[in-house]
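Anyone able to model this chain together with nicotinamide-adenine-dinucleotide?
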Amino acid sequence: MNVLVPGGAGFIGSAFARLLVRERPKWNVIIFDKLTYAGNRANLQPVEGKHAFILGDIADAPAVRMALHEHAVTAIVNFAAESHVDRSILSGAEFIDTDVLGTYVLLTEARAARVGRYVQVSTDEVYGSISEGTATEESPVRPNNPYSASKAGGDLQVRAAFQTYRFPAMVTRGSNTYGPYQYPEKIIPLFVTNLLEGKKVPLYGDGRNRRDWLYVEDHARGILTVLERGTPGEIYNLGSAEEYENVMLTRLILAELGKGEECIEHVPDRPGHDRRYALDSSKAYGLDWRPTVSLPQGLTQTVAWYKANRAWWEPLKSGEYLEYYRRQYHERRSPEMAKHHSASEGRVSKGLSNSRAPHKGREERGRTEP
Ligand SMILES: NC(=O)c1ccc[n+]([C@@H]2O[C@H](COP(=O)([O-])OP(=O)(O)OC[C@H]3O[C@@H](n4cnc5c(N)ncnc54)[C@H](O)[C@@H]3O)[C@@H](O)[C@H]2O)c1
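re: yes, here you go
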């Protein structure tokens, strides 16, 4: 199998690539990644020499076409996305470009190239907040923030590709994922690295939002299961059924690092913050997939990894990251925040039509490296 992995230099995509190299050694793994702030070649260092790498944008049809033909791609697992809710609230345009338009381009090119299997990696966030019980694959899609709305848009493009053209595509909807190599803006790596730096951890609102936490290797294995055994046209929830309030999660992280509650800094809640996500994953269980790592076990492994790999994350917490952090957490406290947001949103909207231009210094996009 020749598998194209868009977004494979990110957090979950790189875990998937490492899993394939380990457990499907005969497959050819081709990473196709734009290397946004969240993409990092260092995530692929453990599989150096065992994958091909293409610098490219999934919304760039000729680049996708070239990759599919050059590598005779037989399957695609699409992780490429703008993936951070908080950033989507600050400015959402890039999310539409990649998560919706990019998905459409990928599907269209994959169909033309007669790719045999396609998995779209999506999220439980598309169901919106679940006050009681659990979301099944039949539950309504009710996204509440620009990120989840853009992911839902991508999911619907996948549905249309199957319904209209019988293109053999499937969707996975995974729950909140954590583990090694996660960019330090999402709650677990942010809190762990802040504490390792002797800083406080910013906890939103009353901290009572509940999430279902899935260890990254369990998530990657669930996606592989769907790739190999899923039925085209179907959606599969991938959750751990292990729910924790954010404040409980924070206490587990503090305990893991021997820190106390004085390290918590309460910050105003995220607008549109979903109260609870909860998945019914019995359909994926029917494919013989089960999560194997509990949150306490996974947190111990994750904290140990961040302690041992400061050289990976310390350089990431600089430059653009610090500017983002300032806007996200410090300016939230000021009454000027709303004004600032609407001004910056205006700037992004103007950039929407040309945001697919190559990044500065990325002129080599589309080129394959061994
Ligand atoms: N992290 C989670 O908790 C979680 C949970 C469920 C589902 N998901 C989904 O899983 C997928 C991967 O999430 P992640 O946390 O690894 O994300 P990530 O932000 O760590 O990585 C995203 C990757 O996509 C690449 N990318 C972005 N735009 C691109 C484009 N236009 N063309 C090519 N590459 C592009 C980035 O460079 C990066 O390598 C996403 O689709 C996300 O919606 C994530």
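The two ends are 17 Å apart (CA to CA).
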